[in-house]
Design brief:
The protein is about 30% helix and about 20% strand. By secondary structure, the chain is an alpha/beta fold. The strands form two sheets. A ten-stranded mixed β-sheet has the order 10-9-8-7-6-5-4-11-12-13. The longest helix is centred in the last third of the chain and has 12 residues, at about 210-220. The chain is globular and about 45 Å long. It starts with a helix and ends with a helix.
């Protein structure tokens, strides 16, 4: 057997059928879709492969561009008594965020609940909170309560970068228009993973918006190929893909392999603070939580 095939099988985290296709997820975060019938040319999902889940709006950072308007005295969401959790399919990926998710009193119980259902939990924390809670985060990883770790980058710091290099599944999150290209340059060639998020011009993001944001966007736009070459892995949310016009740098073949689908095609957003769901976090149209994830996803797909 080919050694690459052996290695892939050893690193397989989970596999499941969703609609007309198979999904294979690997320990390094790689996801592979394959239609059940080779002749099919589209992937038709029956439930979300992954969900962004906001568990709290509480945060003490006060970031001026925070599109969630998080504050130190904001509300936490109810995590343990949502019936739809019992309808999640094994190996569904949940990206847990806030606010500061580490501040939620039910956070650890929630992770235990997800683990018991074979749900893949990933969590995103601010760079400052990461540095303040390294022992706690190490405990979550050691207990296999989280698989992926997103860290919202705020400023370049050598100590932080060296520490980030020691976490294989850590992904730096930066915001297009906020992050400085000069900071990204300093991280080139350091074997780091990067996620570029689109700038959300809502709530405090609208107040923070300025010509400087557009200038930063332009610099990232002009240097996107250098950025992708400088990091071990570079990924983007759909808003960043639109803002950076990423399709311009791909062949049609490579684009079809790279692009993971529109918002609502394989993904959805859940706000447990307001007990709402939507196509994405920027969607104005919101719906009250229901008891079954497939019912909610059906609404998202048809919206």
């Amino acid at each position: 057997m080919d050694m690459t095939v052996k290695e892939n099988k050893m690193n397989l985290l989970g596999k499941y059928i969703n609609g007309n296709y198979n999904v294979s997820i690997y320990l390094d975060g790689t996801k592979v879709r394959e239609t059940l019938v080779p002749e099919d040319t589209m992937f038709v999902s029956e439930f979300p492969e992954c969900m962004d889940v906001k568990i709290t709006n509480q945060c003490d950072m006060g970031c001026k561009f925070c599109h969630e308007d998080s504050t130190i005295d904001s509300l936490h969401g109810e995590l343990l008594n949502n019936k739809f959790i019992n309808t999640l399919h094994p190996y569904t990926e949940i990206a847990i965020g806030g606010g500061n998710p580490l501040s939620h009193p039910q956070f650890f119980d929630f992770l235990d609940l997800l683990k018991s259902k074979n749900i893949i939990a990933n969590v995103t924390v601010n760079q400052t909170h990461f540095m303040q809670n390294i022992k706690l985060i190490n405990g979550l990883l050691l207990a296999n309560l989280i698989k992926g770790l997103g860290v919202s980058f705020t400023h370049y710091d050598e100590e932080f970068i060296k520490l980030a290099q020691s976490y294989p599944n850590l992904v730096l999150h930066v915001i297009n228009g906020v992050v400085k290209y000069s900071d990204l340059e300093k991280m080139f060639g350091k074997n780091l993973k990067l996620l570029i998020l689109g700038y959300k011009n809502i709530r405090r993001g609208a107040d923070y918006y300025s010509p400087k944001v557009e200038d930063n966007k332009t610099i990232i736009y002009d240097n996107i190929c250098k950025i992708t070459e400088g990091f071990k892995v570079t990924s983007f949310d759909n808003l960043a893909i639109k803002q950076l016009e990423l399709k311009r740098i791909f062949s049609d073949k490579d684009w079809n392999e790279f692009y993971m689908g529109d918002d609502g095609q394989f993904t959805m957003y859940i706000d447990l603070v307001k007990q709402e769901f939507a196509r994405s976090s920027t969607s104005q149209k919101r719906y009250e939580l229901m008891d079954n994830i497939e019912d909610m996803f059906g609404i998202v797909k048809s919206a």
